[in-house]
Specification:
Oligomer: single chain
Strand content: 15-25%
Structural class: alpha+beta
Order of helices and strands: HEHEEEHEEEEH
Distance between the termini: 53 Å
Strand order of the largest sheet: 2-1-5-6-7-8-4-3
């Protein structure tokens, strides 16, 4: 009788261990990412004093929302004083896949008052959010036929292939939200 009870307990345990829990997220393998984001700081670029360093890698990116353009990082850049200072001083950030440069994005935040009709990495320091956008500041629906929007569309067309490579790589790494 004890052997039958033990057998049923083991069988029941094996059956339960095979159950799939959909609430468990698939672990991400961050060591395989080829995505890099490198800051370009104007004073370094002019003097040639410093090489671009990969500030963010694919390991840093938790997910990317293709609809909104939001990038969510594993550890918020605000947690590193060095990265936060670089974000505030950076002119633009270059996106790479391995050694291939995909595109550049001008770094902009709510502290900027200029218009920029090209790709931007918009940094919302208040909400600690980061977005890849077609320009800064955002244009509203009434401006969809404006010269500024046409210029943004043309500039986006120029980086479309590199942007798509970024999306494809993040999708392969299961980082698209």
């Amino acid at each position: 009788m004890k052997q039958n009870s033990l057998f049923f307990i083991l069988l029941f345990g094996l059956l339960l261990s095979g159950c799939n829990n959909d609430n468990n997220e698939k672990p991400l393998n961050f060591s395989e990412s080829k995505v890099q984001m490198r800051f370009v700081i104007p004073s370094f670029e002019r003097s040639g004093a410093a090489q671009q360093a990969a500030v963010f890698t694919g390991r840093s990116i938790h997910w990317f929302d293709e609809t909104t353009g939001e990038i969510k990082f594993q550890d918020p850049p605000e947690s590193s004083a060095m990265i936060l200072a670089a974000l505030k001083e950076a002119d633009h950030i270059d996106f790479y896949l391995g050694e291939e440069k995909l595109f550049s994005a001008k770094v902009r935040s709510q502290i900027h008052s200029d218009y920029y009709n090209d790709v931007t990495l918009y940094v919302d320091f208040g909400q600690q959010k980061y977005y890849i956008k077609d320009g800064y500041p955002p244009l509203d629906e009434s401006q969809k036929d404006s010269p500024a929007q046409k210029e943004r569309d043309e500039n986006w067309e120029n980086i479309k292939n590199g942007y798509q490579k970024l999306i494809d790589q993040l999708r392969r790494e299961d980082r698209i939200r």
